């Protein structure tokens, strides 16, 4: 589900990334837009920030990670991450 939300928002995310004046503003705007959408859809999620990438984890009712999407804060582009590979790290 989380990757569908990112797919729907990809143009918005890239526009926000391109129009931000500072890296901090870019990160804040992207995070705000995404968290608002995830909360509106009642998706339970967690995120991890690593360098200029934020990993959004969708969590099921049992607390298991079911999907992961990485968002590049510099470009606003995202990529679905292989769950098995992600969990091995």
State the main characteristics.
89 residues; 3 helices; alpha+beta; four-stranded antiparallel beta sheet
Q: Which range best describes the helical content: under 10%, 10-25%, 25-40%, 40-55%, 55-70% or over 70%?
A: 40-55%
CA radius of gyration is: 13 Å
Low-pLDDT parts are: none
Order of neighbouring strands in the sheet with most strands: 1-2-3-4
How far the N terminus sits from the C terminus, by CA atoms, comes to 23 Å
Q: What structural class do helix, strand and pairing data support?
A: alpha+beta
The secondary-structure element order is HHEEEEH
Mean pLDDT: 88
Helical segment count: 3
Main β sheet profile = 4 strands, antiparallel
Number of strands: 4
**Strand proportion:** 25-35%
Envelope shape: globular
Structure in words:
- The protein has 89 residues and is of the alpha+beta class.
- It is 47% helix and 28% strand.
- It has three helices and four strands, in the order ααββββα.
- The chain has helices at 2-19, 23-40, 83-88, and strands at residues 45-50, 53-59, 65-72, 78-81.
- The chain has a four-stranded antiparallel sheet.
- Strand 1 (45-50) and strand 2 form a beta hairpin.
- The chain is globular and about 40 Å long.
- It starts with a helix and ends with a helix.
- The model has no long low-confidence stretch (mean pLDDT 88).
